[in-house]
Amino acid sequence: MVVLRLDKTLMLNSNQEKGCRCSKVFIKKPTYYNLHDTLFCGQAFRWIEKPNPNQNPSRIYEGILQNIIIQVQEIDNQTILVEQIGTRIPETKLKKVVRQYLGLNVSWEKTFNTLFKKNYPGIYTKLKKYKGLSVLSQNNFEVLISFMCAQGLGVSIIRRQISMLCELFGEPILNFKSSELLGYSFPKPESLAEASLHELKKCTNNNGIRAKNIKHISQSICNSSLNLDELCAENTSYEEAKELLVSFPGIGEKIADCVCLFGLGHHEAIPIDRHVREYLDKLFELRTPSQALSEQNYRNLAEKARALLGPDYPGLSSQILFHYWRKDVKGLTSF
DNA sequence: CCCCAGGCAGCGC
DNA sequence: GCGCTGCATGGG
Q: Which of A105, A159, A333, A334 has the highest Cβ tally under 10 A?
């Protein structure tokens, strides 16, 4: 689902500049939703934000997609520039990777349908500022492991776990000319499957149970008892994918829904965490009887939420509400 | 010092 | 089925 549309403009730097920047792609945004929010609200854990020395106060965002390091920068309200650094790849591949990452095109009209607008005109008006936000389509294994690290801890700790996993078990990515170290790829399943629990534990906030679960599910992928590519939206229904995911230790209802939505393209998945549950209660009066969210209560609540948010892109709608609730209502800034 | 931060699983009742 | 608890650490 998306947010940003690739412009036809494709500019290639023919000369190898110092620092080895290669392909450049300009992307036109259909809306004014800003780049920072698009990347971080899209559930990308691995983006780095840094000041752009050449263009104050503009910022540069750096990320690794499919082992390609790219830099993204907001040129103006409607255009962003994607530059590829590191290992040289053809511009057609860069374009494909970026397109894939940014996801499919989703119409705003389908994100919140007419019934929602009619029933909640006040809320809908406040959500309009998020027009253009997308659910990023990220690598499924990366999403799986990242969200297994996202239990009951703050976002800063989640990010640290993921960057440590990359440093200890990922592949170094070098500048193809100078051999300068640019960063680390996300680990392959094989690396995590063979990892020693002692080493893995360092990356999982010293949590041995989490380390064991990550090793176990990585082994399951290596021995083909779990095939994430088979669970994606084109091959398998959301219900089947989720059922298999929750059968693994360390994956409950919420994490499974995150993997389904952000990694496997199942748009009907609505991950219910403490924030989503809170706004479903406070904004829409969807309540759950008990304090703990049992599996049955979770599924009942998710069904009600899907009915509320419409049949097309309830996952995206729930994310937009998630950010509206966190940022605009509660004033949280940790993104 | 206390409480919470984008959960999950195991246990007792 | 429901409630409680451990897991772990950093920051307000």
A: A159
